[in-house]
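Quarterly update from the structural biology core.
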Amino acid sequence: MALRIQYVGHRNSLFSLEEDAFTHDHKPAGVTNDTILSSMPKGVLGGSVAGLKGDLLVGSCERADRPLGLFINNAAGNPFENTPAVASEKGPFVHCLGACQVDVYETNDDDGAGAALEYEAGDLLYSSANGLLTKEAGGGQVAVGVVVKAPSASDPWLGLLLLV
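Predicted structure, tokenized:
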């Protein structure tokens, strides 16, 4: 559940987190994903998609009006630090042409078949219903980024350039 920032673009924390940002489950029943461990905490994860619903940040595109970028920290902040998100109800995110790599993204399609997703440089990335990056576009979705480095068996990080 990490985000490697290579070029930061812009960082922002203007919006407050929705209550679900602390309780959202990124591995719901029936969803196959090789990058999400069952031991991962609930709530937004570093590298998951930050979306805007009214004036609140949400971690699931099902409730978001539009994507804003990628969360920098998980809902409780950075490990071994105080818990800034809990204390401030803010969720820092990166956006505006930042270049980064993530190790949490959808590895299977969500149409019920569960076919493995293969990422290639140039693929557009969207937010999945779980708030993770995917190459599957839902109806009328805005692209969050474009793949610049595809994950592989020897290097599972997905590299992207943010478009939002």
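The radius of gyration is 14 Å.
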